[in-house]
Amino acid sequence: MKHLQPINRKARLLAARTDERSGARALADIPFGCSTQLDPGWEVDSQGGTYGLCTPVERDLYDCYHTCYWPAQVPDALTNFPKWSNSCGAAAQDWAKIDLVFP
Amino acid sequence: MNYSASPFHRFESDGASFVYAGRSAAIVALDAASSAVLEHFTRPGGADLDAWTASIRAHADATALREAFGELVSVGLLGPTGEVPAAAETLPPMPFPVSTLVLNVTNKCNLSCTYCYEYGQDKITDVGAKKAPRMSLETATKSIELLFAESAGQREVSVTFFGGETLLNFDVIRGAVEHAEARARESRKRVSFALTTNATLLTDEIIAFLAAHRFGVNVSIDGARADQDRHRVFQSGKGSYDVVVPRILKLLAAMPRAKDGGRPVGARVTLTKGLADVVETFRHLTQDLSFESVGFAPVTSAEDREWALVASGATAGGDMGRVLEGFRALAKDYVAAALRNESHGFSNLNDLLGELHRGTNKAHPCGAGLGLLGVSTEGELGLCHRFVESDAHALGDLEHGIDQEKRARFLHSVHVSKKIACHDCFARPHCSGGCYHEAYVRYQDATQPNLHYCDWVRAWTALGLDCYAEIARKNPAFLERFEESGDRARHERATTETTA
Question: What's the predicted TM-score (pTM) here?
Answer without folding.
Answer: 0.81
